[in-house]
Design goal:
The relative contact order is 0.25. The chain has a single domain, classed as Ubiquitin-like (UB roll). By secondary structure, it is of the alpha+beta class. The chain has a five-stranded mixed sheet with strand order 2-1-5-3-4, covered by helices on one side.
Length: 92
């Protein structure tokens, strides 16, 4: 399946400034693997040493948070949109 991936500003250097790219995969895990194939270094930014999704990065498939779906095993279908959103912390 081909999905559109929205890239956050901190990762634009890996995609040569492209804010949206396409990737192949039937699950979030497969899409991340394809992003790594296309843009080396992407996976280590998105996943920890064990290969699990990093806690401080949010992944949304068609505006649905994957934490409330099936995590990295969440199935994707043709035309889905994956948004990668770094968590933002703040305070005084």
């Amino acid at each position: 399946m081909t999905v559109t991936v929205r890239i956050p500003t901190p990762l634009l250097s890996l995609t040569k400034g492209k804010k949206e790219v396409t990737a192949e995969g039937s699950t979030l895990r497969e899409v991340i693997d394809d992003l790594e194939r296309q843009f080396p270094g992407m996976k280590k930014r998105l996943c920890d040493e064990e290969g699990s999704l990093r806690r401080f990065i949010n992944f949304f498939i068609n505006d649905e948070d994957v934490r409330f779906l099936e995590g990295e095993s969440t199935p994707l279908k043709e035309g889905d949109v994956l948004s990668i959103v770094p968590a933002i912390a703040g305070g005084v």
